[in-house]
Design brief:
eight-stranded antiparallel sheet; 12 helices; 8 strands; transmembrane
């Protein structure tokens, strides 16, 4: 019974690994690149993100920056504004054409001179393409289905791999150490089995959280488990101010009030809806929080800038808080640099597992074919000798 179970596990591990290996390799490798996206963006694209910050000089009013962008791109609508907490960062305006919210044209502006330093289409930016490759293999819905299935297969591969790895008492030390001076075949097996074992808990967690983006039912299950009800739809509340009220200085007023109500450091993002009947949504990341992805939301009247409502992280449901943890767990950003470095190492090792696994499979197939050839050759020789003896 035990041997039959291990044989089934071996076949599942083999054929699911061969079937999903390329996808797992691509997803793991692109995931390793995305781990330090926030840190690498200003380094790779300094013109877009970094400016020289003058000493003791405050930035220009946000309305002035907005006016410059609106004048430069009159055919586009400003839908988002992002303000980084660091003084040497640009203010980034997200522009759209009509209602095409997914096709963002980003414009970076120097907050001290109002000069447009750079612009790009987000769909064509490096990290966006890497993300599309990571989640959808750049194949949209088809790729989403492929990566979702491959992730489920990989979870089964990890479980069956643990079954196959599990050692007898005398083999425990061998299964936990790599024999670096061994021949290639043994070394490759050790790299696959030992590294696979040590990263398994982390890879299992990353793969499981990744299913949230592949399957809506996984996302819904989080809310049903912790809140007892599906995810509630969130929309910006309606404006209650006078439509003809003066909007001069509104953004500056909103920024000041946001920093007063939420004094912690963090990235601020304005979402400006197309409809005049909806309020401005302002989100601010809490960089002082014990975990990443803690965000508070404030809603302001777009005509006179007064506060309409709040949606603070502390008041969110348990389901929403758990859902917010999914992204930092998946990316390794949950506790900052230590977990990011760990996630990078895990992702790189995970990318090697399909490679070492295929090498093991090819080696075994070659060995079997060699045995068959030898048996065939031996049988042929015996037959010839028998014929000679008879004659």
């Amino acid at each position: 019974m035990k041997k039959t179970f291990k044989k089934i596990a071996s076949q599942l591990h083999l054929w699911l690994g061969v079937s999903s290996g390329l996808v797992v390799f691509i997803v793991a490798l692109t995931g390793s690149i995305l781990v330090f996206e926030d840190e690498l963006e200003p380094v790779i694209f300094p013109k877009f993100h970094v400016v020289e910050a003058p000493k003791d000089q405050p930035g220009l009013p946000l309305e002035s920056l907005r006016a410059v962008v609106a004048s430069a791109y009159p055919d586009l609508r400003i839908a988002r504004i992002a303000i980084e907490p660091l003084a040497d960062r640009t203010v980034i305006f997200g522009l759209v054409e009509g209602k095409k919210e997914k096709d963002i044209f980003s414009v970076a502006v120097n907050p001290y001179t109002a000069q447009i330093t750079d612009a790009r289409r987000e769909n064509e930016s490096f990290f966006h393409i890497v993300l599309q490759l990571h989640r959808y293999l750049c194949l949209e819905d088809t790729g989403k289905a492929i990566t979702g299935i491959a992730t489920i297969m990989f979870i089964v591969i990890m479980i069956t791999g643990l079954v196959l790895w599990w050692p007898k008492r005398r083999q425990a030390r061998q299964r936990l150490t790599i024999k670096w001076d061994a021949k290639f075949k043994r070394l490759n097996w050790d790299l696959h089995a030992v590294f696979g074992f040590f990263v398994l808990p982390f890879t299992f967690l990353i793969a499981s959280t990744g299913l949230v983006w592949s399957y809506k039912w996984v996302n819904d299950m989080i809310y049903l488990t912790f809140d007892g009800r599906p995810q509630q739809k969130r929309e910006a509340p309606s404006n209650i101010g006078l439509i003809n009220a003066s909007s001069t200085g509104t953004l500056a007023q909103v920024t000041a009030e946001t920093n007063r109500l939420l004094p912690h450091p963090g990235r601020i993002q304005f979402t400006l809806p197309e409809s005049d009947s909806l309020s401005i949504t302002v989100s601010k990341v809490n960089e002082n929080a014990s975990v990443a992805n803690v965000v508070d939301f404030l809603y302001f009247d777009r005509h006179d800038g007064h506060l309409i409502g709040k949606r603070l992280y502390d008041d969110e449901s348990t389901g929403m808080k758990v859902r917010r943890l999914v992204f930092p767990i998946h990316t390794g950003s949950i506790w900052g640099w230590p977990t990011k470095v760990l996630a990078l190492i895990v992702a790189l090792i995970t990318a090697t597992l399909p490679v070492t696994g295929v090498i093991i499979w090819v080696g075994r197939r070659f060995k079997k074919e060699k045995k068959v050839v030898r048996k065939s050759s031996t049988s042929h020789t015996v037959a010839n000798r028998t014929e000679e003896a008879i004659s």
